[in-house]
Amino acid sequence: MLGSHCKNLRTAQWHVPAELLPKVIWALDAFPLLVSLAVKFDVPLKEAGALTLGSAQDVKLHLRNLQQLILRGHSAEFIDQASGWNIPLLRS
Question: What pTM was estimated for this model as a whole?
Fold first, then answer.
């Protein structure tokens, strides 16, 4: 919903449960102009192996403006997914 109203969003800071990683990926797809992103993932309520990404697993994001990415908490799965994304301006 936020993506349909704030296409020009440049900065975001989110604190989410680890189980919502797929929604974070879809949200990032909706905000292609992000320059700075900070995400804190809580420890999953289920075992780490039980986390599923569903259709978000195959999303290859092109975050052409993202320069700063701050990750906190349970972010290993996010990092695994982000390693296949195109983030050419990422500096920190």
Answer: 0.83
